[in-house]
């Protein structure tokens, strides 16, 4: 009579079911996240340093496709306007239709409707603009400036145009939500607090965080579920080896 040790296969079957479920759910999250992101977001490469240090030359950004009506002060947007050259440009919205925007007050600040705006994102430590200007933004238009005011060609260059340097809201193609590349610059685009107190406030970030979480969670589930099989087989071999040792060493009566 031998003292053989036997184990059932119930846990093994349950493990295989759970690992398959994990892979299936992971595929849904991973592929669904990518599809969701592809529908809502478009990547752009910024060719100049006009938005430095917020966005550097050559940086890759992710911009949410939005309607121009959703744009708020402080947003960094991608737009195209034939007067500006009909090529995609990236600038920051500092004033909207009906605003009077000017620079600079005695403290060197940009003002919107007479209220000074703190702009911690600016590249330069001096005044918010090296050249003084004043403009009243027509209804349905946007006034845009680069964060690198010393080198940016923006609404200040077009002040003599019929729209006083502004562009139509309909020219906006997308709103920048994050810098994606290079990795040292990776991060979400913050909404400037200085614009929150103005009428309309600031915009809310898009669902990019949820998209990233979905993709990452899906990848983890796929890898975890796929790894179950090899791990279970290895553990099974170790278990069979232990059983054989018990059988071989059993006493005979």
Give a summary of the structure in a few sentences.
28% of the residues lie in helices and 22% in strands. With 253 residues, it is α+β, with helices and mostly antiparallel strands. The model is unreliable at 1-8 and 243-247 (pLDDT under 50).
Percent of residues in helices: 25-40%
Question: Low-confidence parts, pLDDT < 50 over ≥5 residues?
Answer: 1-8, 243-247
The helix count comes to 2
* Rounded mean pLDDT score: 86
What sequence of helices (H) and strands (E) makes up the elements?
A: HEEEEEEEEEEEEH
CA-based gyration radius: 29 Å
State the major sheet: 8 strands, antiparallel
- Identify the overall geometry: elongated
What does this structure look like?
This protein has 253 residues and is of the alpha+beta class. 28% of the residues lie in helices and 22% in strands. The chain has two helices and twelve strands. It has helices at residues 10-40, 208-248; strands at 41-45, 60-65, 76-79, 89-96, 100-103, 110-112, 115-117, 133-136, 141-145, 167-168, 172-181, 187-188. The strands form two sheets. Strands 1, 2, 3, 4, 9, 10, 11 and 12 form an eight-stranded antiparallel β-sheet that branches. A hairpin with a 5-residue loop joins β11 and β12 (187-188). α1 packs antiparallel against α2 (208-248). The radius of gyration is 29 Å and the shape is elongated. The termini are close together. The model is unreliable at 1-8 and 243-247 (pLDDT under 50).
Describe the secondary-structure layout.
Layout lengths: L9 H31 E5 L14 E6 L10 E4 L9 E8 L3 E4 L6 E3 L2 E3 L15 E4 L4 E5 L21 E2 L3 E10 L5 E2 L19 H41 L5
Antiparallel strand pairs: 1-2, 2-11, 3-4, 3-11, 4-9, 5-6, 5-8, 6-7, 9-10, 11-12
């Amino acid at each position: 009579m031998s003292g053989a040790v036997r184990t059932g296969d119930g846990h093994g079957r349950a493990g295989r079911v759970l690992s398959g479920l994990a892979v299936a759910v992971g595929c849904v999250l991973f592929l669904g996240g990518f599809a969701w992101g592809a529908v809502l977001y478009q990547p752009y490469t910024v060719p100049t340093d006009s938005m430095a240090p917020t966005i550097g030359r050559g940086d890759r950004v992710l911009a949410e496709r939005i309607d121009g009506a959703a744009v708020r002060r402080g947003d960094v947007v991608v737009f195209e306007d034939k007067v500006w050259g009909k090529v995609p440009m990236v600038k920051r919205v500092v004033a909207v239709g009906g605003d009077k925007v000017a620079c600079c007050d005695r403290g060197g600040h940009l003002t919107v409707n007479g209220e000074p705006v703190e702009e911690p994102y600016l590249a330069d430590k001096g005044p918010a603009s090296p050249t003084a200007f004043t403009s009243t933004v027509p209804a349905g238009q946007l006034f845009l400036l680069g964060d690198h005011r010393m080198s940016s060609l923006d609404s200040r260059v077009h002040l003599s145009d019929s729209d006083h340097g502004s562009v139509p809201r309909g020219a906006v193609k997308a709103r920048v939500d994050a810098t994606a590349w290079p990795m040292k610059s990776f991060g979400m685009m913050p909404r400037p607090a200085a614009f929150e107190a103005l009428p309309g406030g600031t915009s809310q970030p898009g669902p990019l965080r949820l998209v990233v979480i979905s993709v990452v969670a899906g990848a983890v589930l796929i890898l975890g579920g796929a790894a179950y099989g090899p791990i279970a087989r290895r553990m099974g071999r170790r278990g069979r080896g232990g059983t054989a040792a018990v059988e071989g060493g059993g006493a005979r009566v």
